[in-house]
Design brief:
Elements: H1 22-27, E1 32-36, E2 39-42, E3 47-50, H2 53-56, H3 65-75, H4 89-101, E4 106-112, H5 115-132, E5 140-144, H6 153-158, H7 162-165, E6 175-178, H8 203-211, E7 216-221, H9 237-248, E8 251-255, H10 269-273, E9 279-282, E10 294-299, H11 300-306, H12 326-342, H13 347-360, E11 368-374, E12 377-382, H14 391-402, E13 405-406, E14 408-410, E15 413-416, H15 424-441
Parallel strand pairs: 3-13, 5-6, 5-7, 7-8, 8-9
Antiparallel strand pairs: 1-2, 2-3, 4-10, 9-10, 11-12, 12-15, 14-15
Bound molecules: pyridoxal-5'-phosphate.
The site of pyridoxal-5'-phosphate (PLP) has 14 residues, from helix 5.
Keywords: Aminotransferase, Pyridoxal phosphate, Transferase
Family: Belongs to the class-III pyridoxal-phosphate-dependent aminotransferase family.
Organism: Paraglaciecola arctica BSs20135
């Protein structure tokens, strides 16, 4: 189809695009001009099925009335309120609502503007928490290979995606990584949580022995690693991490930036696995990707540890100009209303069998190396072309775009994580389109 771009090649030059092949893109741009429910509208008028909820964030789909109305009303009432030493009602209401959505003692909420900021905030909180309790020697942070915790220096340091790290020097001191859980032969083509690999959690014991556990502030993991290619935790693995952390007084941080807000078929992975971390990082689906927003949800004990000293002193020297800003809070309230009214936070569970069957229907294709799935998430790993890893899936991305389907690729894996409003006919379209594309790559 002939494209009618609305921008000239010169007009594309000033914008340095994030995580993008800038030269490839600018030679053949993919311009989005509208979105409604499950579809984007492209500049040439074509419709693109959103197979990845924007970037794992538009969980309620696009152009949802509750969210649009909430933002419109808010901007005409209170557009901004200073974040420090001042507050507005909506941020307290939203914090309370979020605290009520997660189990146990996770009752205090600190607002940020992104997943990266949530991770940064959580790591700083962990170190400062131990310091406030008189354990200032607990400063080390443990992440995991292939982990993704955003792009700021703390998150990058505990993260383990080597392509993201290698341009940036030594990163933070006092950080170590557990082994990843990817590539276990016996788990190939598992459906849901894989059986094998619980012993990988013992890697944390090894790091405790190496560093002395009394120097470790926190362990941070994604319950399910999305950005590195849909890597699921082996059965019993997260439970074992929780046990080891408890044994040594180490905080456990779940980075739920992707898994939060219904992606796994439960409101949070915390609930899905029945494990209570000390801190949860959220962002993305919190405000449906409409306005940047994140939130760090912590156990009472963490907040309480800071509430000492003179009452007119700041307790935690951290925060953002836009922490809990009224526009983002309004978007989040509209989002949570939509999730609640439409039962979206558990819709993934209702559709997961259908989704799983559709994903695994690709298993017979010779280029498919593995398929992983849970809730409304699927990862389809392809055999790489030996000389040019990840090239094949990038070609799949371009072909899917031409065929009217937006997918995400990472390494040699195609990831799908559609809005939670997806219909069965759209699931059929996504996987039948992918079947033809993967066949064409052989
Ligand atoms: C688990 C996880 N943590 C953190 C982030 C970073 O979020 P953001 O891009 O909003 O900074 C992401 C983004 O994909 C993520 O998947």
């Amino acid at each position: 189809m002939t494209k009618t771009h609305t921008l000239t090649p010169e007009q594309l030059q000033a914008n340095w695009m994030p995580f993008t092949c800038n030269r490839q893109y600018k030679a053949d741009p993919r311009l989005v001009v509208g979105a409604d429910r499950m579809h984007f509208t492209l500049s040439d008028g074509r419709q693109l099925l959103d197979g990845i909820a924007g970037l794992w964030c538009c969980n309620a789909g696009h152009n949802r009335p509750r969210i649009v109305e909430a933002i419109q009303k808010q901007v005409a009432t209170l557009d901004y309120s200073p974040a420090f030493q001042m507050g507005h009602p909506l941020q307290f209401e939203l914090a309370e609502r979020l605290a009520n959505m997660v189990p146990g003692d996770l009752n205090k909420v600190f607002f940020t503007n992104s997943g990266s900021e949530s991770c940064e905030t959580a790591l700083k909180m962990a170190i400062a928490y131990h310091n406030a309790r008189g354990e200032g020697n607990r400063t080390k942070l443990i992440g995991r290979e292939k982990g993704y915790h955003g792009v700021n220096f703390g998150g990058l340091s505990v993260g383990g995606m080597s392509a993201n790290r290698k341009m940036f020097g030594n990163l933070l001191n006092g950080v170590d990584h557990m082994r990843h859980t990817h590539g276990i032969e016996a788990n190939l083509f598992s459906k849901g949580i894989p059986e094998h690999g619980v012993e990988l959690a013992e890697d944390l014991v090894r790091l405790c022995e190496l560093h002395d556990p009394s120097t470790i502030a926190a362990v941070i993991v994604e319950p399910l690693a999305g950005s590195a290619g849909v890597l699921l935790p082996p059965k019993g693995y997260l439970e074992r991490l929780r046990q080891i952390c408890d044994q040594h007084g180490i905080l456990l941080i779940f980075d739920e930036v992707i898994t939060g807000f219904g992606r796994m078929g439960a409101p949070f992975a915390t609930e899905y696995f029945g494990i209570e971390p000390d801190i949860i990082c959220t962002a993305k689906g919190l405000a449906n990707g409409v306005i940047p927003m994140g939130a760090v949800i912590v156990q009472d004990k963490i907040y309480d540890a800071f509430m000492h000293g003179p009452k007119d002193m700041v307790e935690f020297f951290h925060g953002y100009t836009f922490s809990g800003n009224p526009m983002a809070c309004a978007a989040a309230m509209g989002t949570l209303d939509t999730y609640e009214e439409e039962g979206l936070l558990t819709r993934g569970a209702e559709l997961s069998d259908y989704w799983q069957d559709a994903a695994h229907s690709l298993a017979d294709l010779s280029l498919v190396k593995d398929i992983r799935n849970i809730g409304l998430i699927a990862g389809i790993e392809l055999h790489p072309t030996p000389a040019t890893p990840s090239k094949r899936v990038f070609t799949a991305f371009l072909k899917a775009y031409e065929a009217g389907l937006l997918i995400r690729t990472t390494g040699d894996t195609i990831a799908l994580s559609p809005p939670l409003i997806i219909e069965k006919s759209q699931i059929d379209f996504a996987f039948s389109t992918l079947r033809e594309i993967i066949k064409s790559l052989d």
